[in-house]
Design goal:
By secondary structure, this protein is α/β, with parallel strands linked by helices. Helix content is about 35%, strand content about 25%. It has helices spanning about 35-45, 75-85, 120-130, 160-170, 205-210, 215-230, 235-245, 255-260, 265-275, 290-300, 325-340, 360-365, 375-380, 390-395, 400-410; strands spanning about 20-30, 50-55, 60-70, 90-95, 110-115, 135-145, 150-155, 175-180, 190-195, 280-290, 305-310, 315-320, 350, 365-370, 380-385.
Amino acid sequence: MTTQPDAPAPTTSLPSDGSPTVLFTLTGPDRPGVTTAVFQALTRSGVEVLDVEQVVVRGHLSLAVLVTAGDDEAGTISAVRVVGGELGLTVTGLPGTGDNSKRRRNRLAVTMLGAPLLPSAVAGVAGRIAEHGANIDRIRRISRFPVTSIEMDVSGGDGEVLRRELTAEAMAHGADLAVCPAGLARRGRRLVVMDVDSTLIQDEVIELLAGHAGPEVEKQVAHVTERAMRGELDFAQSLHERVACLAGLPESVLDDVYRSVRLTRGARTLTRTLHRLGFTLGVVSGGFIEVVAPLARDLGIHHVAANRLEVVDGHLTGRVVGAVVDRAAKAASLRRFAELEGLELSRTVAIGDGANDLDMLATAGLGIAFCAKPVVREQADTSVSVPYLDAVLYLLGIPRSEIEDADEDLAPALPGEAEAPTGGNRS
């Protein structure tokens, strides 16, 4: 069979820069039939529609329509004003020439999150964008609960420079911010890899295990864990030191600990939504495969990497088996998962909270520090400071309304929608 070349794109009737056009803006109370009435008036005027933007906020309509001027520009403007007056709308008709100017290159998606999101944060970020000669082309709200988030379409700016400066500006006002390439770069399948302890779950598994060894051991392990997460200790050394404290515990405590772990709020929403989008999920943990693997299975997470505890005669020996999953191993695991999925690293997202996650966050296309230590927030691409893991979805440009609509559609159960095991405290 002979393959024919693509046919040339059809020509359009869009006006040249010198052709007369009219920009209408209509504002006022929204109600059914407003848009119909406005466009029926334009139909009678015999013009062409070139661009439309409409938004409704708390029942207040803002509608912008760009049309060709037609043979009777004054008559067109008068017709729309009459209809607008009948509907209780304020109408302006601005004659001019040409269509919208082509948006500049280097298009970016700038997402801001706040609880609350303060005007000073928006003003500060918008000011920095303007200082760099970039332009905000469009703004929309992504979510109102559990955090308020907005997304700005920005063009004409240097992504790396804006990321550094806008992130710092947002943080100064108590907000989180992400700068990502816009357009096709945000679409399509991705790999999302998460840390487990204090990220996917609220707990540190080794501390839960230590709780079965008595209060003194629990206190000792918690102290070493905190120093390791701050980057003050070599992770492998601290892991061996903490695991040694667990020697003699019966193997059965692993099941007890698994049943007691608490998912971070929003974890099920995050995993369920990502599965619906066709994303692939992975977890990498400095914790233990005996707890992490069944947790990943419950959430439908395909890729897993974690440490393995040595068990002899039904008891923990206080040693780990094989190489330690440390900072470098986490990054290597992300690369391996991406290769198995046939995805470029630019198509990966990593989420973590501690110094042990820094290499993984730096390797991913987008590294997100989740409720993280200061050193991690400073080095990650972006951060989420609120304790809701599903806020990550907003950084990916997924509106809360679409998440809720998908849940209400009562689609067949997907991985990540299983009920919590009996006795578990799952959010």
